[in-house]
Protein backbone atom coordinates (compact mmCIF):
# COMPACT_ATOMS: atom_id res chain seq x y z
CA UNK A 1 0.00 0.00 0.00
CA UNK A 2 1.32 3.43 -0.98
CA UNK A 3 1.99 5.84 1.90
CA UNK A 4 -0.73 8.38 2.61
CA UNK A 5 -0.13 12.08 1.87
CA UNK A 6 0.61 14.40 4.76
CA UNK A 7 -1.73 17.10 3.42
CA UNK A 8 -4.66 17.03 0.96
CA UNK A 9 -5.40 20.38 -0.71
CA UNK A 10 -8.74 21.09 -2.42
CA UNK A 11 -9.67 23.81 -4.87
CA UNK A 12 -13.22 25.22 -4.50
CA UNK A 13 -14.83 26.17 -7.82
CA UNK A 14 -15.72 23.12 -9.92
CA UNK A 15 -14.01 20.93 -7.33
CA UNK A 16 -16.28 21.15 -4.29
CA UNK A 17 -19.23 22.83 -6.05
CA UNK A 18 -20.25 23.08 -9.72
CA UNK A 19 -19.87 26.83 -10.30
CA UNK A 20 -17.60 29.87 -10.00
CA UNK A 21 -18.43 31.81 -6.88
CA UNK A 22 -17.50 35.16 -8.41
CA UNK A 23 -19.53 34.81 -11.64
CA UNK A 24 -22.22 32.07 -11.60
CA UNK A 25 -23.93 32.87 -8.30
CA UNK A 26 -24.89 36.05 -6.46
CA UNK A 27 -23.58 36.40 -2.89
CA UNK A 28 -24.22 36.89 -0.04
CA UNK A 29 -25.52 33.42 0.72
CA UNK A 30 -27.85 32.16 3.42
CA UNK A 31 -29.47 28.94 4.61
CA UNK A 32 -33.25 28.83 4.13
CA UNK A 33 -35.82 27.34 6.49
CA UNK A 34 -35.76 24.04 4.57
CA UNK A 35 -31.99 23.70 5.18
CA UNK A 36 -30.87 24.48 1.65
CA UNK A 37 -28.21 27.07 0.85
CA UNK A 38 -29.36 29.90 -1.40
CA UNK A 39 -27.85 33.02 -2.95
CA UNK A 40 -29.21 36.53 -2.77
CA UNK A 41 -31.68 35.83 -5.58
CA UNK A 42 -32.99 32.73 -3.83
CA UNK A 43 -31.36 30.21 -6.15
CA UNK A 44 -30.41 26.92 -4.51
CA UNK A 45 -26.69 26.28 -4.18
CA UNK A 46 -25.47 22.67 -3.98
CA UNK A 47 -22.21 20.79 -3.57
CA UNK A 48 -21.08 17.89 -5.70
CA UNK A 49 -22.91 14.99 -4.01
CA UNK A 50 -19.70 12.97 -3.36
CA UNK A 51 -17.87 15.81 -1.56
CA UNK A 52 -18.97 15.09 2.05
CA UNK A 53 -18.14 11.39 1.68
CA UNK A 54 -14.69 12.14 0.23
CA UNK A 55 -13.82 14.60 2.99
CA UNK A 56 -15.05 12.19 5.67
CA UNK A 57 -12.88 9.47 4.14
CA UNK A 58 -9.74 11.62 4.28
CA UNK A 59 -10.44 12.61 7.86
CA UNK A 60 -11.01 8.97 8.77
CA UNK A 61 -7.57 8.13 7.36
CA UNK A 62 -6.02 10.87 9.48
CA UNK A 63 -4.98 13.02 6.50
CA UNK A 64 -5.13 16.79 7.22
CA UNK A 65 -6.89 18.92 4.58
CA UNK A 66 -6.62 22.51 3.34
CA UNK A 67 -8.53 24.73 0.90
CA UNK A 68 -6.81 26.82 -1.78
CA UNK A 69 -8.63 29.03 -4.28
CA UNK A 70 -7.78 31.97 -6.57
CA UNK A 71 -11.36 33.28 -6.53
CA UNK A 72 -11.96 37.00 -6.29
CA UNK A 73 -15.05 36.42 -4.14
CA UNK A 74 -13.16 35.65 -0.95
CA UNK A 75 -15.97 36.46 1.47
CA UNK A 76 -18.57 34.49 -0.50
CA UNK A 77 -16.31 31.41 -0.75
CA UNK A 78 -15.67 31.38 2.99
CA UNK A 79 -19.39 31.89 3.63
CA UNK A 80 -20.26 28.83 1.55
CA UNK A 81 -17.72 26.70 3.43
CA UNK A 82 -19.44 27.66 6.68
CA UNK A 83 -22.99 27.16 5.37
CA UNK A 84 -22.14 23.72 3.90
CA UNK A 85 -20.38 22.79 7.18
CA UNK A 86 -17.11 22.17 5.34
CA UNK A 87 -14.93 24.58 7.30
CA UNK A 88 -14.46 21.96 10.03
CA UNK A 89 -12.53 19.75 7.60
CA UNK A 90 -9.84 22.28 6.67
CA UNK A 91 -6.92 23.04 8.98
CA UNK A 92 -5.72 25.84 6.66
CA UNK A 93 -7.43 28.05 4.08
CA UNK A 94 -5.66 30.06 1.36
CA UNK A 95 -8.48 31.83 -0.51
CA UNK A 96 -7.53 34.98 -2.44
CA UNK A 97 -6.67 36.03 -6.01
CA UNK A 98 -3.17 35.30 -7.25
CA UNK A 99 -1.23 32.14 -7.97
CA UNK A 100 -1.71 28.62 -6.70
CA UNK A 101 2.05 28.50 -6.29
CA UNK A 102 1.75 31.26 -3.68
CA UNK A 103 -1.04 29.34 -1.95
CA UNK A 104 1.07 26.20 -1.71
CA UNK A 105 4.20 28.00 -0.59
CA UNK A 106 2.25 29.52 2.30
CA UNK A 107 0.67 26.17 3.14
CA UNK A 108 4.13 24.64 3.23
CA UNK A 109 5.36 27.39 5.56
CA UNK A 110 2.36 27.03 7.89
CA UNK A 111 2.17 23.23 8.03
CA UNK A 112 5.80 22.26 7.45
CA UNK A 113 4.68 19.52 5.06
CA UNK A 114 7.04 19.06 2.07
CA UNK A 115 5.52 19.61 -1.37
CA UNK A 116 6.33 16.02 -2.28
CA UNK A 117 3.97 14.81 0.48
CA UNK A 118 0.99 16.93 -0.57
CA UNK A 119 -1.87 15.88 -2.85
CA UNK A 120 -3.83 18.48 -4.84
CA UNK A 121 -7.35 18.35 -6.30
CA UNK A 122 -8.15 21.00 -8.95
CA UNK A 123 -10.17 21.18 -12.17
CA UNK A 124 -7.78 23.53 -14.01
CA UNK A 125 -4.74 21.98 -15.66
CA UNK A 126 -2.70 25.19 -15.48
CA UNK A 127 -2.91 25.15 -11.69
CA UNK A 128 -1.83 21.51 -11.55
CA UNK A 129 1.11 22.18 -13.89
CA UNK A 130 2.29 25.16 -11.83
CA UNK A 131 2.02 23.33 -8.53
CA UNK A 132 3.66 20.14 -9.86
CA UNK A 133 6.91 22.09 -10.35
CA UNK A 134 7.17 22.95 -6.67
CA UNK A 135 9.94 21.23 -4.75
CA UNK A 136 11.58 19.84 -7.87
CA UNK A 137 15.16 20.64 -8.77
CA UNK A 138 16.13 21.21 -12.34
CA UNK A 139 17.68 18.15 -13.88
CA UNK A 140 21.36 18.70 -14.51
CA UNK A 141 23.04 17.73 -17.76
CA UNK A 142 24.37 14.24 -18.24
CA UNK A 143 28.16 13.75 -18.50
CA UNK A 144 27.79 13.19 -22.24
CA UNK A 145 25.86 16.46 -22.64
CA UNK A 146 28.43 18.36 -20.58
CA UNK A 147 31.32 16.94 -22.63
CA UNK A 148 29.60 17.86 -25.89
CA UNK A 149 28.91 21.40 -24.66
CA UNK A 150 32.53 21.82 -23.59
CA UNK A 151 33.77 20.63 -26.99
CA UNK A 152 31.52 23.13 -28.76
CA UNK A 153 32.80 25.94 -26.54
CA UNK A 154 36.40 24.86 -27.19
CA UNK A 155 35.82 25.11 -30.94
CA UNK A 156 34.52 28.66 -30.51
CA UNK A 157 37.54 29.66 -28.43
CA UNK A 158 39.95 28.09 -30.93
CA UNK A 159 38.40 30.17 -33.69
CA UNK A 160 38.71 33.23 -31.48
CA UNK A 161 42.39 32.40 -30.93
CA UNK A 162 43.01 32.24 -34.65
CA UNK A 163 41.20 35.56 -35.16
CA UNK A 164 43.19 37.29 -32.41
CA UNK A 165 46.48 35.96 -33.76
CA UNK A 166 45.63 37.35 -37.21
CA UNK A 167 44.70 40.74 -35.74
CA UNK A 168 47.94 40.84 -33.74
CA UNK A 169 49.95 40.23 -36.90
CA UNK A 170 47.98 42.93 -38.73
CA UNK A 171 48.63 45.49 -35.98
CA UNK A 172 52.29 44.53 -35.93
CA UNK A 173 52.55 45.07 -39.68
CA UNK A 174 50.76 48.41 -39.30
CA UNK A 175 53.26 49.53 -36.66
CA UNK A 176 56.16 48.49 -38.87
CA UNK A 177 54.62 50.24 -41.85
CA UNK A 178 54.35 53.59 -40.10
CA UNK A 179 57.56 53.25 -38.12
CA UNK A 180 59.10 56.59 -37.28
CA UNK A 181 57.38 58.29 -40.20
CA UNK A 182 54.01 58.28 -38.42
CA UNK A 183 54.91 57.70 -34.83
CA UNK A 184 51.39 58.34 -33.54
CA UNK A 185 49.78 55.72 -35.81
CA UNK A 186 52.54 53.25 -35.01
CA UNK A 187 52.02 53.65 -31.25
CA UNK A 188 48.24 53.20 -31.61
CA UNK A 189 48.82 50.00 -33.56
CA UNK A 190 51.15 48.71 -30.85
CA UNK A 191 48.60 49.56 -28.14
CA UNK A 192 45.91 47.62 -30.02
CA UNK A 193 48.39 44.77 -30.39
CA UNK A 194 48.95 44.72 -26.61
CA UNK A 195 45.20 44.59 -25.91
CA UNK A 196 44.78 41.79 -28.42
CA UNK A 197 47.64 39.88 -26.81
CA UNK A 198 45.93 40.23 -23.41
CA UNK A 199 42.68 38.90 -24.87
CA UNK A 200 44.61 36.04 -26.47
CA UNK A 201 46.22 35.17 -23.13
CA UNK A 202 42.80 35.18 -21.45
CA UNK A 203 41.39 33.01 -24.20
CA UNK A 204 44.29 30.59 -23.84
CA UNK A 205 43.67 30.34 -20.10
CA UNK A 206 39.94 29.80 -20.57
CA UNK A 207 40.58 27.15 -23.20
CA UNK A 208 42.99 25.34 -20.87
CA UNK A 209 40.37 25.37 -18.12
CA UNK A 210 37.71 23.96 -20.44
CA UNK A 211 40.07 21.24 -21.65
CA UNK A 212 40.85 20.32 -18.05
CA UNK A 213 37.14 20.13 -17.21
CA UNK A 214 36.38 18.02 -20.25
CA UNK A 215 39.21 15.60 -19.50
CA UNK A 216 38.10 15.39 -15.86
CA UNK A 217 34.53 14.55 -16.88
CA UNK A 218 35.75 11.99 -19.42
CA UNK A 219 37.97 10.37 -16.79
CA UNK A 220 35.13 10.41 -14.27
CA UNK A 221 32.80 8.81 -16.82
CA UNK A 222 35.37 6.12 -17.58
CA UNK A 223 35.98 5.48 -13.89
CA UNK A 224 32.25 5.26 -13.25
CA UNK A 225 31.85 2.74 -16.07
CA UNK A 226 34.78 0.70 -14.74
CA UNK A 227 33.28 0.74 -11.25
CA UNK A 228 29.91 -0.37 -12.60
CA UNK A 229 31.60 -3.22 -14.46
CA UNK A 230 33.56 -4.23 -11.36
CA UNK A 231 30.41 -4.09 -9.27
CA UNK A 232 28.61 -6.27 -11.81
CA UNK A 233 31.49 -8.76 -11.77
CA UNK A 234 31.50 -8.77 -7.97
CA UNK A 235 27.77 -9.49 -7.89
CA UNK A 236 28.26 -12.26 -10.43
CA UNK A 237 31.04 -13.84 -8.39
CA UNK A 238 29.01 -13.49 -5.21
CA UNK A 239 26.07 -15.20 -6.87
CA UNK A 240 28.32 -17.99 -8.16
CA UNK A 241 29.68 -18.66 -4.65
CA UNK A 242 26.50 -17.89 -2.72
CA UNK A 243 26.01 -21.56 -1.75
CA UNK A 244 29.70 -22.28 -1.15
CA UNK A 245 32.29 -21.53 1.51
CA UNK A 246 35.67 -22.91 2.54
CA UNK A 247 34.12 -25.20 5.16
CA UNK A 248 31.84 -26.76 2.56
CA UNK A 249 34.79 -27.21 0.18
CA UNK A 250 36.86 -28.91 2.91
CA UNK A 251 33.92 -31.14 3.77
CA UNK A 252 33.44 -32.03 0.10
CA UNK A 253 37.13 -32.90 -0.36
CA UNK A 254 37.02 -35.07 2.78
CA UNK A 255 33.98 -36.89 1.40
CA UNK A 256 35.76 -37.47 -1.93
CA UNK A 257 38.84 -38.87 -0.15
CA UNK A 258 36.69 -41.14 2.00
CA UNK A 259 34.78 -42.43 -1.02
CA UNK A 260 38.04 -43.13 -2.86
CA UNK A 261 39.29 -45.16 0.11
CA UNK A 262 36.04 -47.12 0.23
CA UNK A 263 36.24 -47.76 -3.52
CA UNK A 264 39.82 -49.03 -3.17
CA UNK A 265 38.81 -51.33 -0.34
CA UNK A 266 35.95 -52.71 -2.41
CA UNK A 267 38.28 -53.29 -5.39
CA UNK A 268 40.78 -55.12 -3.18
CA UNK A 269 38.05 -57.28 -1.71
CA UNK A 270 36.66 -58.19 -5.13
CA UNK A 271 40.08 -59.10 -6.57
CA UNK A 272 41.10 -61.33 -3.60
CA UNK A 273 40.98 -65.14 -4.47
CA UNK A 274 38.15 -67.03 -2.79
CA UNK A 275 38.38 -70.58 -1.30
CA UNK A 276 42.04 -70.59 -0.19
CA UNK A 277 42.96 -70.60 3.44
CA UNK A 278 44.85 -67.62 4.63
CA UNK A 279 47.10 -69.77 6.89
CA UNK A 280 48.98 -71.60 4.06
CA UNK A 281 52.72 -71.05 4.29
CA UNK A 282 54.17 -70.08 0.93
CA UNK A 283 57.64 -71.38 1.93
CA UNK A 284 56.22 -74.86 2.49
CA UNK A 285 54.63 -74.75 -0.94
CA UNK A 286 57.96 -73.81 -2.53
CA UNK A 287 59.74 -76.70 -0.74
CA UNK A 288 57.09 -79.11 -1.92
CA UNK A 289 57.44 -77.87 -5.47
CA UNK A 290 61.22 -78.30 -5.33
CA UNK A 291 60.84 -81.92 -4.08
CA UNK A 292 58.52 -82.72 -6.97
CA UNK A 293 61.02 -81.34 -9.45
CA UNK A 294 63.84 -83.46 -7.91
CA UNK A 295 61.76 -86.63 -8.10
CA UNK A 296 60.88 -86.00 -11.72
CA UNK A 297 64.51 -85.38 -12.64
CA UNK A 298 65.70 -88.54 -10.89
CA UNK A 299 63.06 -90.59 -12.67
CA UNK A 300 64.19 -89.32 -16.05
CA UNK A 301 67.84 -90.17 -15.28
CA UNK A 302 67.01 -93.74 -14.23
CA UNK A 303 65.14 -94.53 -17.44
CA UNK A 304 67.67 -93.13 -19.89
CA UNK A 305 69.18 -96.63 -20.70
CA UNK A 306 65.85 -98.48 -20.74
CA UNK A 307 64.63 -97.09 -24.00
CA UNK A 308 64.03 -99.66 -26.80
CA UNK A 309 66.68 -99.80 -29.40
CA UNK A 310 65.56 -98.39 -32.65
CA UNK A 311 66.22 -100.31 -35.91
CA UNK A 312 69.40 -99.32 -37.65
CA UNK A 313 69.07 -96.71 -40.23
CA UNK A 314 70.58 -97.37 -43.61
CA UNK A 315 73.11 -94.72 -44.22
CA UNK A 316 74.51 -93.64 -47.56
CA UNK A 317 77.93 -94.86 -48.67
CA UNK A 318 80.91 -92.99 -47.46
CA UNK A 319 82.13 -90.47 -49.98
CA UNK A 320 85.56 -91.03 -51.43
CA UNK A 321 86.58 -87.46 -51.03
CA UNK A 322 87.87 -86.06 -47.78
CA UNK A 323 85.44 -83.82 -45.91
CA UNK A 324 86.51 -80.71 -44.09
CA UNK A 325 86.98 -80.96 -40.40
CA UNK A 326 83.72 -80.29 -38.50
CA UNK A 327 82.66 -79.79 -34.92
CA UNK A 328 82.95 -82.50 -32.27
CA UNK A 329 80.25 -85.18 -32.40
CA UNK A 330 77.03 -84.38 -30.62
CA UNK A 331 77.13 -87.67 -28.75
CA UNK A 332 80.15 -86.48 -26.83
CA UNK A 333 78.28 -83.34 -25.77
CA UNK A 334 75.30 -85.39 -24.60
CA UNK A 335 77.56 -87.63 -22.52
CA UNK A 336 79.16 -84.63 -20.87
CA UNK A 337 75.77 -83.15 -20.05
CA UNK A 338 74.55 -86.44 -18.51
CA UNK A 339 77.64 -86.64 -16.34
CA UNK A 340 77.10 -83.12 -15.05
CA UNK A 341 73.46 -83.87 -14.21
CA UNK A 342 74.41 -87.05 -12.39
CA UNK A 343 76.96 -85.21 -10.32
CA UNK A 344 74.42 -82.48 -9.51
CA UNK A 345 71.81 -85.03 -8.39
CA UNK A 346 74.26 -86.94 -6.16
UniProtKB/TrEMBL annotation:
Protein family membership: Belongs to the HAD-like hydrolase superfamily.
Keywords, sorted A to Z: Coiled coil, Endosome, Hydrolase, Magnesium, Metal-binding, Protein phosphatase, Protein transport, Transport
This protein's name: Magnesium-dependent phosphatase 1
Function as written in the Swiss-Prot or TrEMBL entry: Magnesium-dependent phosphatase which may act as a tyrosine phosphatase.
Cofactor(s) recorded in Swiss-Prot or TrEMBL: Mg(2+)
Basic and acidic residues bias spans: 299-312
Stretches for region Disordered: 299-346
Location in the cell: Late endosome membrane
Catalytic activity: O-phospho-L-tyrosyl-[protein] + H2O = L-tyrosyl-[protein] + phosphate
GO CC, alphabetical: late endosome membrane
EC top class, as a word: hydrolase
Annotated EC: 3.1.3.48
Family matches, as SUPFAM superfamilies: HAD-like (SSF56784)
Upper classification of the organism: Eukaryota, Metazoa, Chordata, Craniata, Vertebrata
GO terms for biological process, alphabetical: protein transport; vacuolar transport
Pfam family for this entry, one: Snf7
MF term (GO), any: protein tyrosine phosphatase activity
Membrane topology: Peripheral membrane protein
Amino acid sequence: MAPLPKLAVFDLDYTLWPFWVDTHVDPPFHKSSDGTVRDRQGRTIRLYPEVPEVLDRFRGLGVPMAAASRTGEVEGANQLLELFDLARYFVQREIYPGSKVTHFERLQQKTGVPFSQMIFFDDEKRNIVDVSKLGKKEKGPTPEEAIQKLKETEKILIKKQEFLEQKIQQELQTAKKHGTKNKRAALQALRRKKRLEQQLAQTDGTLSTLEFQREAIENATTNAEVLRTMELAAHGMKKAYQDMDIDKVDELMADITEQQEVAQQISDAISRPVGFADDVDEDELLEELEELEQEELARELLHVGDKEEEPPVKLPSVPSTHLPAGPAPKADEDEDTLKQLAEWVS
